[in-house]
Task: structure prediction
Amino acid sequence: DPRPKFERDFEGCLSLPGVGGLVARETKITLQWLDIDGFDVEKDFEGWNARVLQHELDHLLGVMIHKKFNEMDKMKVRKNLEGMELAACMMPKRLARKGLVLKNATI
Result:
């Protein structure tokens, strides 16, 4: 069967302490990238390694873990997320008081 197989498992994230839920991920993935010398590399990953790489790639794409939760898990972590959102809104003011200002960022 050429269709990807998905598995649901509990995931948390160091970027969002106290936030976790079930996330469906592909059990086998293939990644392609350029190595330090500019050569194409392709490698297959499965199981835990495939899950972790998909999680980290989500970060690079700007997708946080809670966006992958089902509605029930989203409801369970909503209070934690709202508290973090408030703290994040206050962070630029705290940094500015210390002389640190982020003007722009690119990946």
User: Anything to note?
Assistant: The chain is about 35% helix and 25% strand. The first helix runs from residue 48 to 60. The beta strands are 6-12, 20-26, 28-34, 40-46. The CA atoms of residues 10 and 68 lie 11 Å apart.
